[in-house]
């Protein structure tokens, strides 16, 4: 359902001082109806590592994995339109058992959580 405040609620959580203090790395990505994994990866990387825009596409996933490994992170995937997109994006994220979280806002009802600490709105 559109317009019920999913993004507003997610933004409030993302900016909450408890969340800010808890997670070493917080990333917000708006996915939308047109999705390209390389653009999403670049968006994630640019939030914590400006200047990665010159990195070759085939190195992005490995670099992201190295940057997030051994850190406690929160990734917000806002406005996810289909479950395949979500599955593709979750596969790109590293180590899922360190207290890391993925927060998803979506119009779809069923999503593959991929074993992540997963919050859905």
Write the layout of secondary structure elements.
Elements: H1 6-15, H2 17-22, E1 25-32, H3 37-48, H4 60-68, E2 73-80, H5 83-92, E3 101-106, E4 118-120
Q: What do you see in this structure?
A:
With 121 residues, this protein is α/β, with parallel strands linked by helices. The protein contains five helices and four strands, in the order ααβααβαββ. It has a four-stranded parallel beta sheet, with helices on both faces. α3 runs parallel beside α4 (60-68). The N and C termini lie close together (11 Å). 21% of the residues are buried.
Properties at a glance:
single chain; alpha/beta; 39% helix; four-stranded parallel β-sheet; 121 residues
Q: How does the helix and strand content classify structurally?
A: alpha/beta
Oligomer: single chain
Helical coverage, percent range: 25-40%
Low-confidence stretches: none
Number of E-state strands: 4
Cross-sheet strand order for the largest sheet: 1-2-3-4
**What percent of residues are in strands?**
15-25%
> Biggest sheet, open or closed, and with what strands and sense?
4 strands, parallel
What is the CA-CA span between the terminal residues? Answer: 11 Å
Shape: globular
As a whole number of angstroms, the C-alpha radius of gyration is: 14 Å
Summarize the structure.
The protein is α/β, with parallel strands linked by helices. 39% of the residues lie in helices and 21% in strands.
């Amino acid at each position: 359902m559109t317009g019920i405040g999913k993004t507003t609620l997610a933004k409030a959580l993302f900016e909450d001082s408890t969340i800010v203090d808890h997670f070493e790395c917080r990333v917000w990505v708006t996915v939308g109806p047109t999705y390209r994994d390389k653009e999403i990866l670049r968006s994630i990387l640019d939030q914590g590592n400006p200047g990665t825009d010159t990195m070759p596409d085939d190195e992005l996933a490995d670099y992201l994995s190295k940057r997030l490994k051994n850190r406690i992170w929160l990734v917000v995937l806002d406005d996810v339109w289909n479950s395949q997109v979500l599955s593709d994006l979750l596969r790109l994220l590293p180590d899922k058992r360190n207290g890391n979280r993925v927060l998803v806002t979506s119009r779809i009802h069923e999503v593959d959580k991929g074993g992540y600490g997963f919050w859905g709105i």
